[in-house]
Design brief:
single chain; about 130 residues; mainly beta; three-stranded parallel sheet; 1 helix; globular
Length: about 130
């Protein structure tokens, strides 16, 4: 019991400083309030992105506007029903494995604003043609 309490006390500062994770219009984001930036993040295991996904340039949460500037590591990983995705000009980076194993993904629009694409981002995207 003492070890469990110690672990919780050690973990508490990490949890308390975590960014806000929210779901807006079917897309999950990590919000960073200090700089009003949003990162697209993965979904819970019971829900996967599917069909066509259009990421907006900005999202509003609790009356505050956040610029969508990145797609996080493994954000769409394993979304085997995702068929296309459009990324806005506000995004500058795409994380590691962001689209890995999206086997139905046929089309993705990546703007010139993206200057960083992580490792294995399109691993096993066997249907990708555009």
């Amino acid at each position: 019991m003492k070890k469990q309490l110690l672990f919780l006390f050690l973990l508490l500062p990490i949890v308390a400083s975590a960014d806000d994770a929210v779901r807006i219009d079917g897309i999950n984001y990590n919000l960073i309030p200090k700089v009003k930036v949003a990162e697209v993040t993965s979904t819970p295991i019971f829900y996967k992105y599917s069909g066509e996904v259009i990421i907006p340039e900005t999202v509003i949460y609790n009356g505050v506007e956040y610029g969508v500037t990145s797609i996080g590591n493994y954000a769409f990983s394993g979304c085997s029903s995702l068929t296309s995705i459009t990324i806005p000009d506000s995004v500058t980076s795409i994380g590691d494995g962001a689209f890995e194993y999206c086997t139905a993904l046929k089309s993705i629009t990546i703007p010139d604003s993206v200057t960083s694409i992580g490792h294995d981002t399109f691993l096993e995207c066997t249907s990708l043609t555009n």
